[in-house]
Every structure is written in C-alpha cells, then in structure tokens.
Amino acid sequence: MADDNTSMPAAKKAKCESGDVQEARKDFTGFVVDKVLNEVVQSKAIFVQGHFKGSDEPAVVILEKTAFDRDTLGDMLSSRMELQRIMQNDIYDVYNGYPPQNLNGISTRIIYPATERHIMKYTSQQVYLIEETAADYQNITLPSITSRAFSIQWVYNILDKKAEADRILYEDEDPEIGYLLAPDMKWDQTQIDNLHIDAICHKRNIKSIRDLTEGHLPLLQNIKEKGTEFICEKYGLTKNHLRVFLHYQPSYYHLHVHFTHINFDAPGSRVGQAHLLSDVIDNIQLQHDYYQKKTMTFTVREKDPLFQKFREAGKV
Amino acid sequence: MADDNTSMPAAKKAKCESGDVQEARKDFTGFVVDKVLNEVVQSKAIFVQGHFKGSDEPAVVILEKTAFDRDTLGDMLSSRMELQRIMQNDIYDVYNGYPPQNLNGISTRIIYPATERHIMKYTSQQVYLIEETAADYQNITLPSITSRAFSIQWVYNILDKKAEADRILYEDEDPEIGYLLAPDMKWDQTQIDNLHIDAICHKRNIKSIRDLTEGHLPLLQNIKEKGTEFICEKYGLTKNHLRVFLHYQPSYYHLHVHFTHINFDAPGSRVGQAHLLSDVIDNIQLQHDYYQKKTMTFTVREKDPLFQKFREAGKV
User: Fold this and answer.
1) What strands lie across the sheet with B106-111, from one edge to the other?
2) Which residue of B has its CA nearest to A51?
3) CATH architecture of the domain with residue range B125-312
4) Could you give the CA distance from residue B66 to residue B48 in angstroms, rounded to a whole number?
5) Would you list the DSSP string of A31-60?
6) B1-64+109-124 and B125-312 share one CATH topology?
7) Is A256 part of the annotated catalytic residue set?
8) Distance CA B258, CA B273 (A)
9) What's the rounded Cα separation, in Å, for the pair B86 and B104?
C-alpha cells in the first residue's frame, strides 16, 4: 500500500473517491526517463522521475530488486542461467549471471501523476564525510550548535517525568552519574533482535563526546556496567550480544548512549558516526583531553546547516 | 579479489601455482542445490551449497542482486519490461516487473571445490561481540591465527602479478611503503555509488592493525594520501566522498585497507569492525604502541575457531 503522506491533486482525489480503478499496465510502453532522483545501493533500489509520452504530468517509478525465492532457486541455477565470466583466481570464479526473465522479477511501484512533494520526498541528498579538527569544532561546529539553539526541552521533560514516564525501564537518580534507560522511539519493543534502548544522563550541559573528560569517567562506567547488567537481565542476553555506542554528531546535544542488539544492523552503527562506549572510556583514560584534541570524522547531509558552515569555511 | 581466509586443498594449490586457469562456465548445467546456507535479505544475497553432477566435491554459490545500471534504465523501463499488477490505490500502482534477461544480471560467485571452511564461513550463525585485551591477543588470538596457518597465497599471487594482474588500478612498488589498488571482488566496477577498492600493501608479515606501530606511519599515510588522490581523480570524487578503513578482525591476515563510497552502506563498515585509517594514524601518533595496548572490540561468529578459543578461555 501507499506509504506517502503527501497530498494528491484535487482531480485525482475526486477520481479516487468515486472508486475508479486505473487500468493495469502491461509494460512500460511510452515511458521516458527524465532523471534519477535517488538510489539506495545497499538494498538495490532506485527512484526515477519520468513521464509517459503524450502526458505533461510526471511519474515517479520506484524499482527495488527482490530477495531470492527459495522455491525457484533450483530452476534459476540451471542451464537456463547464462554466465559471463568476470574473473577467476584459483577456486574462486566470478560471473555475471542472467537468469530467465520470469524468475527475476523486480518490485515496481508507479506513482502517477506524481506531485512536487513526491518528487522532493524521493530525491536524494548527497552525504559528505567531514574531518573536524579541534579548531574546526571551536570555530565552526560549536557556534553552529549554539546559534541553532536546538530545543532539548523534550529531553528535560523525560528526565523530569513530565513526559514518557511510563516508558522508563530503569533509573539511577544520582545527579552526577545517574541516567535513565528508555526504549528508542525506533524500537517496536517486540523483537529482541532489533533491541534499541537509550541511556539519557541526568547531568546537563554535556553536549556530546567533544565535552567528555576524565571527570565523566564515573558516569560513563556507570552507564556501561549497570546499563548493560540491567538490559541483559531483563532481556535474557549477555554483554556479548550488545553494541553500546554514542553518536558524533548526535541527533540532539544532550549526552546519551545507545544499546543495540548485535544482530541489528542499525543505520547509525557505522564507523564515522558510532563510537563504542568502551573505546571512549579507554581513550579518555589514555589521555584526559582525547576528545577535545582528536580530529573527529563524521558524515553530514548536504542540506544540514552544519554542512553549509563547513562549506562556507572552505573545508569541503 | 577473494576475501576468503580459508585454506585451499593441496591439489588446487598446486594447480594455482602452476598458473592454470579453469575454463569459464557458460551456464549452471548439471548444478544441484543441496541447501541454503544463509540469506541476507537486506542486500538481496543468498549463499547456496550444491554440487555439479558427477562430482563429489561441494560448491558454494553466492548470488547477489546488483544495483541498477543507470545507463540501461531507459532500455529497462520500456515495452520490453513486462508488468504484473499486485495492487492499485488511486495514484499508487504496484507491480512485479520483469525486465529483459540481458538487462537484469546477478552477481554470481562460484567457489569450487569448496572446503568445509568455506561452507562454515557462509553458513548463518549467531554473532558475538568480544572485548579483546592486549593479553587476550597474545594468549588467545595470536596463537589461534598462527595455528590455523591461513593461506594467503592468493594475496601473494596478486602482489606477484600471477593472478588478477589486469585488475590492478594503481601500484606503488616500494617494498616498505608501496601497495596496489584493486577493485574489491564484491564491487561490480560499474556503479560509483558502491565503489569498493582495496589497497594491499607490498610489505609482508603485517597481520593486522594489532601489528601497526609508528614505523608503519609512512606506509599508512602513503595509502591514505596517494590512494585517495588516485581514486578521487579516476572516479571524479573528492575525499569527502570516501570512507577509508581497516577491519579488525580482518578477513585475511595481510594488511589491507578498504576504500568505499560514502553512499555505500558496506556491511563491514560498522563500529566494532571498521577502523577509519585517519583514526588509526592519529592514535599511533598519540601513542606509538596504541594498537598493541588497546582493548579491541570485534564481532565474531559462533562457529569461528577464534570464538571457540575465547569461549574455552572463559571470556564469553
């Protein structure tokens, strides 16, 4: 079904309400590709804008390769699958394989006529990798964070029990080393395999990793040890099942730590964004001002105000 | 190139060293599917064990759907792409699409004959997170690596131009700070968005990050600077598009560095496995024996001999 919370043109809306059904297309006859709006390489999906000949209205076509069908695997891996060799080394042989057309379907969604909002929704933003030196943090990032005055009132509401109080799983009320554990908004709380719990510290004004020094080690160790212990006991896990990390840049500038199940391929668990809590503790123990001096690498989307600041400063 | 840290049967090894090349297959005639070892739904990959009729030796076949080729999108979205409607609601239309066979290739890797280790490597298993102290490395990991005597002959074949010579993109022949760049075996070389190139150093006996000290800084900086420069120029990128990292544990114990496009959500780019080359250089500059002393966190599969060793030592 449609997952689009976009408005539809009045004419189409009327048509929809009247219960009309568009005739099914047999193929893409008359379709013209105008541009690729976005591509998600990992999941083999592509978002295309185009039009049908004779129509002024744009169409958005979303193609996504499908998972393999185990029932037809034997039919696919047969004399009907043509092979073109790419390379060979010892026992390793690499080919392009061409299965029969009917066994190699693609999930195909057509939005037609598409509105400007559909087109925006499916248009990609380039992501860039930034190496932020200590000086860059002081001169670019910190002023940008401060000037944007991110509201973290919603975090204080949670800490003060004015909101989401029923979602708190665990709390240590100590003002220096205390924190609470709550399920991340993105976790449905049913699948242990994608467990995602956040620890939010009570102490205020620790904006991110950049502010952490040896004075925070008791807080960090308390989160690592007691938080892990609580989650393991509650969900029947061991510490070897948990990935415990912080983000830089974080999505909000009040110190918090993510606990995720090792089986969960969380989008934010990549190097250059996620920092293991154990590494953070080790590094501060090695050098008390490690995170004030370290060049920090992170990814940022082109329309993020922070990216604009780095570009203005000639750093990208 | 192959990313398999598995030993090869003696017969095959002799064959490889004599420079023989197996004849290319035209299709999968005679192939019988025995079982599905694993499936990665997110990336549309499946790992199959089977055999060729008349042979007792197993084969592992790895199929992975490929990203879309922008150059042939127009040909694909034409009258030649058959559509079967799944559902329709107002402006939203969902189909199964069947493009012409020749435009819908699948990345196909055949490992034949496959060893027990290959089969284990590609079989789905629970993953665990291990915190390896410096002492654990000396007492558990290092003896385990050494005793298993991983064959890296195939790496030496590449370095000595006995295999895959036509795949080398760039080479610095210096025995101390030199390396070559070659496309990773998992990259189809057509999509820049999932660019994946490996730098393999000429110097031997650097097993992993654990062996790196300040003496290796010139090598690491040479890879970071010249490798980045070469790739950016060849593919029209800037350094802000490239994620440059090493794995710990690596898939084979000869130092190599991965260059991937920032848009590519490479499975091996997660924290706890990937280490940014820039961070590695920074940390060694901060403390020359950082990677000998540091507790290293990594993920390991339950059937990996290394996991067994950690379990036997009571560390899991």
Assistant:
1) A82-89, A92-98, B106-111, B58-65, B45-52, B31-40
2) B77
3) 2-Layer Sandwich (3.30)
4) 17
5) EEEEEEEEEETTTTEEEEEEEETT--SEEE
6) no
7) yes
8) 12
9) 21
- Residues paired with residue A58 on neighbouring β-strands, in sequence order: A51
- According to DSSP, residue A270 is labeled B
Confidence tier at B82 by pLDDT (50, 70, 90): very high
- Structure confidence at residue A7 as a pLDDT band (50, 70, 90): very low
Contact B127 A79 (CB under 8 A): no
Mean pLDDT of the region B202-226: 97
Q: Does A34 touch chain B (CB under 8 A)?
A: no
Is pLDDT of A3 > 90? no
Asked whether the CA dihedral A136, A138, A139, A141 is positive or negative, the reply is: positive
Q: Supply the pTM of this predicted model.
A: 0.75
Amino acid at A276: L
Query: How is domain B1-64+109-124 classified at the CATH fold level?
Result: Phosphorylase Kinase; domain 1 (3.30.200)
Q: Does B97 touch chain A (CB under 8 A)?
A: yes
d(C-alpha B210, C-alpha B199), whole Å: 18
Please tell me which residue, B91 or A63, carries the higher pLDDT value: A63
Taking CB atoms and an 8 Å limit, are B44 and A39 in contact across chains?
Answer: no
Per the DSSP assignment, residues forming a β-bridge with A52 are A31
Q: B188 and B66 in contact (C-beta within 8 Å)?
A: yes
Q: Which of A49, A82, A108, A278 to mutate to test the interface with B (most CBs of B within 10 A)?
A: A108
Query: Rounded to a whole number, what is the distance in Å from the CA of B210 to chain A's nearest CA?
Result: 15
pLDDT over 70 percentage in chain A: 93
Q: Is the pLDDT of residue A18 over 50?
A: no
- Contact between A132 and B147 under an 8 Å Cβ cutoff? The reply is no
Distance in angstroms (rounded) separating the CA atoms of residues A6 and A120: 10
Give the pLDDT confidence score for residue A221 in this predicted structure: 98
Q: Tell me what ipTM this predicted complex has.
A: 0.73
What is the identity of the amino acid at B229? E
pLDDT in the model for residue B6: 37
Question: Rounded to an integer, what distance in angstroms lies between the CA atom of residue A14 and that of residue B90?
Answer: 10
Which residues of chain B neighbour A267 with C-beta distances below 8 Å?
265
Q: Which two tokens stand for residue B187?
A: 């990259």
Residues in chain A: 316
SS3 labels along chain B = CCCCCCCCCHHHHHHHHCCCCCCCCCECCCEEEEEEEEEECCCCEEEEEEEECCCCCEEEEEEEECCCCHHHHHHHCCCCCEEEEEEEECCEEEEEEECCHHHCCEEEEEECCCCHHHHHHCCCCCEEEEEECHHHHHHHHHHHHHHHCCCCHHHHHHHCCCCCHHHCCEEECCCCCCEEEEECCCCCCCCHHHCEEEEEECCCCCCCHHHCCHHHHHHHHHHHHHHHHHHHHHHCCCHHHEEEEEECCCCCCCCEEEEEECCCCCHHHECCCEEEHHHHHHHHHHCCCHHHHCCEEEEEECCCHHHHHHHHCCCC
Q: Are B185 and B2 in contact (CB under 8 A)?
A: yes
Query: Would you give the DSSP letter of residue A69?
Result: -
Task: Measure the CA–CA gap between B165 and B158, rounded to whole angstroms.
Answer: 7
pLDDT value for B21: 59
Domain coordinates of chain A in residue numbers?
A: 1-64+109-124, 67-104, 125-312
Structure-model confidence comparison of residues B41 and A59, the more confident one: A59
Please give the structure tokens belonging to residue B4: 């398999």
Residue type for position A88:
Q
